[in-house]
Amino acid sequence: MLGFVPSRPYVLLSCATSADGYLDDATPRRLILSGPADLDRVDEVRAGCDAILVGARTIRTDNPRLLIRDPRRRARRAARGLPAHPARVTLTATGDLDPRARFFDPGALRLVYCATPALTAARARLGRREDSAVLIDAGDPLSLDFMLSDLAERGVARALVEGGGHVLGAFLAAGLADELNLAVAPFFVADPAAPRLDLPGPAAGGPMTLAETRRVGEVALLRYLLGPGGPDHRFLRWAVELSRQCPPSDSAFSVGAVVVGEDGEVLATGFSREQEDHDHAEEVALRKLTQRKLGPDPRLRHATLYSSLVPCGARASRPVTCVGHIVAAGIPRVVFAWREPRLFTAGEGAEQLRAAGVSVTELPGLAERARSVNVHLTDTSST
Ligand SMILES: NC(=O)c1ccc[n+]([C@@H]2O[C@H](COP(=O)([O-])OP(=O)(O)OC[C@H]3O[C@@H](n4cnc5c(N)ncnc54)[C@H](OP(=O)(O)O)[C@@H]3O)[C@@H](O)[C@H]2O)c1
After folding, report:
1. Second label for 297, Cα 20 to 30 Å away, from 146, 195, 202, 310?
2. Is residue 133 within 8 Å of residue 110, measured between CB atoms?
3. Which atom of ligand 1 is nearest to the CA of 115?
4. b or e along 328-346 (b: 16 or more beta carbons within 10 Å of the residue's beta carbon)?
5. How far is the CA of 318 from the centre of ligand 1 (A)?
6. What is the pLDDT of residue 2?
7. Ligand 1 centroid distance, CA of 54 (Å)
8. What is the CB < 6 Å shell around ligand 1?
């Protein structure tokens, strides 16, 4: 049984730009915007995804490999039963793809979403390499919604969209992006002929939610959350995505947690078993904010804790429940997606939090997504 299949993957857009917003210069040679540290960061992001998508023009101009470079990351994926490299995905309206492009090299599943009128031409061009790539009729005009639901059906839970400008703009304009990682390089291109983010209209969903700013070598990384529902939904969706990083377990849930300060700053994140075997996600995030002598970070008294699963109110593995940790830290507000099924303990965390004066918001629209990460535990109890 396949369990719950989300209607579309979590879509993470990733690109590097110059300080004046260009994705490349206008010369035939590819402009390198990221340094080694940022390329390594992207490699880590790739390793956490099931598919990497680029537009057909990026394949034509940059001929990217779309592989995971670090062998330790490939080994980590293999240990989790995943292919060494994510699937490679592209989309095309014309079918103009060179079968000798590195995109078609062996080593990863290759998916080509093609607009219906160009299918015959694409099949003719790809020739014998079609047997190493799957050519998919994505409608006329090509439908991004169809492509994402088809990727979900193929088991893609996280899709990384790496450009170029046209494809990134199409996802933003259609409101189909959950996250944007923007690496800003410390120089200008200053050439209007160079490509940049190409939005056909205003981005859907209003302003993005800034979740992180970080120096990575010489570039500034800006991590934005997008998508419907405003900051609560966005931070909670991010918590669900963190739960995918949990070391697997047959006897404990995989949960993600994000603690956000009053001013919207992300104070800490955590996921189950992140530091020690019996760790719960909320416990890990709060541990990161507690100094041995000074006690809990005072910012927690105005913070919101987002957790993909309701914080535990009973626990066999350790004496203090997550409800206990949250109340002790003075956190006034908790937002969660999924009510704990009665598999391991009686899940009365929400009621206990409310009784302790904590404001609790449940966003059940994200419950199935949170549960899908734990489907190996819940299949027998699922409806
Ligand atoms: N800085 C970075 O992080 C970064 C990352 C990637 C790329 N880049 C740069 O970006 C530039 C390429 O960007 P670009 O905007 O020109 O091209 P692109 O976004 O890579 O690809 C556009 C192409 O993808 C296909 N496509 C996209 N949306 C489609 C839709 N909704 N329906 C059907 N087909 C669709 C079409 O292919 P067909 O033409 O085959 O129909 C379209 O021409 C290059 O200079 C590259 O170096 C920069």
Report:
1. 310
2. yes
3. 33
4. ebebebbbbbbbbbeebee
5. 51
6. 45
7. 7
8. 15-16, 23-24, 30, 33, 54-58, 61-62, 91-94, 96, 115, 141-142, 144, 162-167, 170, 195, 198
Q: How far is CA 65 from the centre of its chain?
A: 21
d(CA 313, CA 300): 20
* Residue 55, token pair as written in the block: 């537009």
Q: In this model, does residue 54 exceed pLDDT 70?
A: yes
Dump pLDDT digits (tens) for 277-295.
999 999 999 999 987 667 7
Distance CA 345, CA 352 (A): 14
Mind giving me the DSSP string for 304-366? EEEEEEPPPSS-SSSSS-HHHHHHHHT--EEEEEEPPPTTSS---HHHHHHHTT-EEEE-GGG
If one residue of 45, 52, 92, 147 were mutated to test the ligand 1 pocket, choosing by the most ligand atoms within 8 A of its CB, it would be 92
Nearest atom, ligand 1, residue 96 CA: 40
The rounded Cα 117 to chain-centroid distance in angstroms is 32
pLDDT tens digits for range 204-257: 788 999 999 999 999 999 999 999 889 999 999 999 999 999 998 998 999 999
pTM (2 d.p.): 0.93
Burial (Cβ within 10 Å: 0-12, 13-18, ≥19) of residue 293: exposed
Question: In this predicted model, what pLDDT tens digit does every residue of 178-210 receive, in sequence order?
Answer: 999 999 999 999 999 999 998 888 877 889 999
178 neighbors 11 (Cβ within 8 angstroms): yes
| Closest residue by CA, ligand 1 atom 37 | 92
Work out whether strand 219-225 and strand 295-296 pair parallel, antiparallel, or are unpaired.
unpaired
